[in-house]
Design brief:
The structure is a single chain. A hairpin with a 5-residue loop joins strand 2 and strand 3. Helices cover 20% and strands 33% of the residues. The protein is built from three helices and eight strands; from the N terminus they run βαβββαβαβββ. A four-stranded mixed β-sheet has the order 1-4-3-2. By secondary structure, it is α/β, with parallel strands linked by helices. It is globular and about 45 Å long.
Length: 127
């Protein structure tokens, strides 16, 4: 594997166009490729999310007993969680949790149109 190869996260989605809309318009990802309806990929920084629709090879490779959402989630670092929460709320995105604070920072969970989890995380300020 070459040093310039980056991995990604594959999310199996029922509607690739709805997923593109959510990730690009709600979470600020950039569309990399869009051969929808079977597939698209989006990126934010070095994170690439592969959006695999029902007819994609990624979806077809999933064993039938594993085709339900898990507890996995992508982790997106934000500068101002309160502002992101306000913006998402104004955009009609439902927050799945209250903001949770811990020693490392604050986080909140949202879900894409297919229920895949996205964690928005604001690191604690370092003094």
């Amino acid at each position: 594997m070459s040093d310039d190869t980056h991995g990604g996260v594959r999310y199996i989605v029922s509607d690739v166009e709805a997923a593109i809309d959510f990730y690009t318009n709600q979470l600020g990802f950039t569309l990399l490729s869009d051969p929808a309806p079977p597939f698209a990929d989006v990126a934010r920084g070095s994170l690439c999310v592969l959006l695999s629709g029902p007819g994609s090879s990624g979806a077809r490779a999933t064993p039938p007993d594993a085709d339900v959402p898990g507890r996995n989630r992508i982790h997106v670092v934000v500068d101002d969680l309160a502002a992101e929460v306000e913006r998402l709320d104004a955009g009609g995105v439902t927050l799945l949790t209250d903001v949770v604070s811990g020693p490392g920072g604050q986080q909140v969970l949202v879900a894409d149109p297919d229920g895949n989890l996205v964690e928005l995380f604001q690191p604690a300020s370092r003094s």
